[in-house]
TrEMBL record:
GO terms for molecular function: DNA-binding transcription factor activity; sequence-specific DNA binding. InterPro entries: AraC_XylS_family_regulators, Homeodomain-like_sf, HTH_AraC. This is AraC family transcriptional regulator. Residues 202-299 form the HTH araC/xylS-type domain. SUPFAM superfamilies: Homeodomain-like. The keyword Membrane does not apply. Residues 1-17 have a biased composition (Basic and acidic residues). The keyword ATP-binding does not apply. Residues 1-21 are annotated as: Disordered. Keywords: DNA-binding, Transcription, Transcription regulation. It comes from Bradyrhizobium frederickii.
Length: 309
């Protein structure tokens, strides 16, 4: 049986009093990191929101007037983000998704699944004063920006999750600075593909959930959505951040994680979720999670054996 961490915000590995400035900082409330009395007005603050509850719950916060807020999903979750009386995002948010809220903006989040986010609280000067004049550009596009499956952000921030050890503050801030500078210099497309309608997306997701163990090709999913292959593929990626085949593989990996918490042999797990060989399963699993199935199983078992803190 898995160890059950505290319901939300608190992460045992981040609260060791021997490391009062260990990063990421704890959040006792969503997007409200503990500052330990330090003034960090000119620095990037990094915090973590870990909430393993399964029941639906709603949180809200207003970004300070002198800061941008950047959230990076460290695991796939289901969420609805609302701001300025409009829906910014609703549905399954893949791991490595990045979203941004501008200064003084109110954001409401409804979580419908366990979640794990790294939060970067960035002074607005990082997008203006600290860039060379030649690289200055309007920042309006940053508000409510969603980058689904931003693999750069996912790989960059992964070291901040640690393995039970505190992260050096200077190292953590370097990661935050790199992320902010990358956003400031990012080129945005002038045209945007519309996302797949929610009702079509739900039909496709339900179809994949029921049939992920077998081969599912693009024409089949397009028929389920009621669209041409070309329009479906583009709209599906806009809605989820995945190409259809990538989404199928990701669902297989998610189901495999459940089986890896049993004593089933790896080859049996691979076949049970639709892979033809253990080798292919291991390659895909590591590509998505950063760990081999065996390593993931060992770490999961270690967490369970340690018991609640």
């Amino acid at each position: 049986m898995h160890a059950v961490p505290p319901e939300h915000g608190h992460h045992p590995a981040l609260s060791d009093k021997r490391h009062p400035r260990a990063y990421p900082l704890e959040e006792r409330a969503w997007r409200r990191p503990e500052q330990n009395g330090a003034s960090l007005a000119q620095e990037i603050t990094i915090s973590r929101w870990l909430d393993l509850r399964t029941a639906s719950r709603t949180e809200e916060a207003v970004t300070p007037s002198d800061r941008y807020f950047i959230g990076v999903a460290s695991r796939t979750t289901r969420i609805k983000l609302t701001g300025e009386q409009r829906t910014i995002f609703e549905g399954v948010m893949p791991e490595s998704t990045l979203y941004v809220s501008a200064p003084s903006k109110r954001l409401v989040a409804r979580f419908d699944a366990p979640c794990d986010f790294l939060h970067f609280h960035v002074p607005d000067s990082y997008f203006t004063d600290r860039l060379p004049i030649a690289q200055h550009r309007p920042t309006q596009h940053l508000n409510d920006l969603i980058l689904l499956r931003d693999m750069f952000a996912g790989q960059l921030t992964r070291p901040l999750l640690g393995r039970g050890e505190p992260i050096d503050e200077t190292f953590a801030r370097c990661i935050g600075q790199t992320l902010a500078m990358r956003l400031a210099r990012l080129e945005y497309p002038r045209t945007k593909v519309g996302a797949l309608a929610n009702w079509r997306l739900r039909r496709v997701q339900d179809h994949v959930k029921q049939n992920f163990r077998r081969s599912i090709r693009l024409p089949e999913l397009a028929r389920v959505a009621g669209l041409s292959r070309m329009h479906f593929a583009a709209q599906f990626r806009a809605a989820t951040g995945y190409r259809p085949h990538e989404y199928l593989l990701a669902q297989r990996v998610e189901h495999a994680k459940t089986l890896l918490n049993t004593e089933a042999p790896l080859v049996q797990v691979a076949l049970a979720v639709g892979f033809c060989t253990q080798a292919h399963f291991s390659t895909v699993f590591k590509g998505i999670t950063g760990e081999t199935p065996a390593d993931w199983r060992a770490r999961s078992s270690s967490r369970a054996a340690s018991g609640p803190v």
